[in-house]
């Protein structure tokens, strides 16, 4: 009898905890699950301020600028290469690139670079590290009531009142198709449609709740392309990590992935216009499973698995470190 009573109490407690967590706000959920991790500003800024905020959100698709960090598994397209080629539309950009070592490679800037390039005093050309994707986080119970599947595209477009022939509709389709693609070799990956699911995946992948969470910080609005001078390079961690890249969608959807050994750096830089940036840089130590025709190898003219390859993260991309 006592055993049955204890069993019943245990079941009741578990059910109570589960029901309570389901009703928790994303912010409270974070505090419970990642009690040692400070929430980055880029997460705080896009949390719903009230319970009904999600239902009041504008019916639109939110767009960012660049997603170089998730292109390593695909062959580089002519369009992607063209975007990086030296196209100088005005005198300002001529001045920005004048005297740059990128001139000899015919690139306006390099989204990928080698670890040795992360050194104090080095001057680089780089675009804005502000992604400008303002898609808000919605509570998990709300987003899970909306389909997220290629088979349900008509229902999704209808839910957001999006014309099926519009650019937004095409973006919805492309993002979902990207999320449904098979897991890349050597990776663990997931499209997190809520902050709660992102937190859960980080716990599962890193195997601990003693986690540090960091993101790039840009102080002030900066130009689309300018020279940056590296002022300090700090090694934050070495080993596995999880990076979440914000995708174009009607609410905050992040492609989270990790696998293989990495080095994570915090790089302090100052732009020619005075913009101060503390940029997260990830250096991947094993690139042997990347697409040999991918953009990193086109830009750097190296082969997969021969040398670590690094890239900066924009300010809405989130890094989870054990």
TrEMBL record:
Key word Signal present: yes
Residues covered by the BURP domain: 112-322
Cross-referenced InterPro entries: BURP, BURP_dom
Keyword check for Translocase: no
PROSITE patterns membership: BURP (PS51277)
Keywords: Signal
Residues making up the signal peptide according to the UniProt record: 1-22
Official protein name in the record: BURP domain-containing protein
Gene source species: Anisodus acutangulus
Source organism phylogeny: Eukaryota, Viridiplantae, Streptophyta, Embryophyta, Tracheophyta
């Amino acid at each position: 009898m006592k055993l049955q009573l204890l069993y019943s109490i245990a079941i009741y407690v578990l059910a109570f905890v589960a029901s309570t967590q389901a009703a928790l706000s994303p912010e409270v959920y974070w505090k419970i699950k990642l009690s040692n991790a400070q929430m980055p500003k880029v997460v705080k800024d896009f949390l719903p301020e009230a319970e009904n905020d999600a239902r009041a959100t504008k019916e639109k698709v939110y767009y960012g600028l660049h997603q170089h960090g998730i292109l390593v598994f695909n062959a580089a397209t002519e369009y992607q290469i063209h975007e990086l080629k030296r196209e100088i539309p005005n005198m300002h950009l001529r001045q920005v690139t004048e005297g740059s070592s990128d001139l000899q490679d015919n690139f306006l800037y390099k989204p990928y670079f080698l670890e040795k390039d992360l050194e104090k005093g080095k001057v680089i050309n780089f675009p804005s590290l502000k992604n400008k994707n303002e898609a808000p986080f919605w509570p998990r119970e709300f987003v899970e009531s909306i389909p997220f599947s290629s088979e349900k595209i008509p229902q999704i477009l209808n839910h957001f009142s999006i014309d099926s022939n519009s650019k937004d509709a095409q973006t919805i389709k492309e993002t979902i198709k990207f999320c449904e693609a098979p897991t890349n070799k050597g990776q663990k990956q997931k499209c997190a449609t809520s902050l709660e699911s992102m937190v859960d995946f980080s716990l599962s992948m890193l195997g601990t709740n003693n986690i540090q969470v960091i993101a790039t910080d840009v102080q002030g609005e900066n130009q689309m392309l300018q020279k940056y001078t590296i002022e300090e390079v700090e090694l934050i961690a070495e080993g596995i990590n999880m990076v979440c890249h914000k995708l174009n969608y009607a609410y905050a959807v992040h492609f989270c992935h990790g696998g293989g050994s990495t080095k994570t750096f915090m790089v302090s830089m100052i732009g020619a216009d005075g913009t101060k940036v503390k940029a997260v840089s990830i250096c991947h130590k094993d690139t042997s499973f990347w697409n040999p025709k991918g953009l990193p190898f086109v830009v750097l003219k190296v082969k997969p698995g021969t040398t670590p390859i690094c890239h900066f993260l924009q300010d809405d991309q989130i890094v989870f470190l054990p």
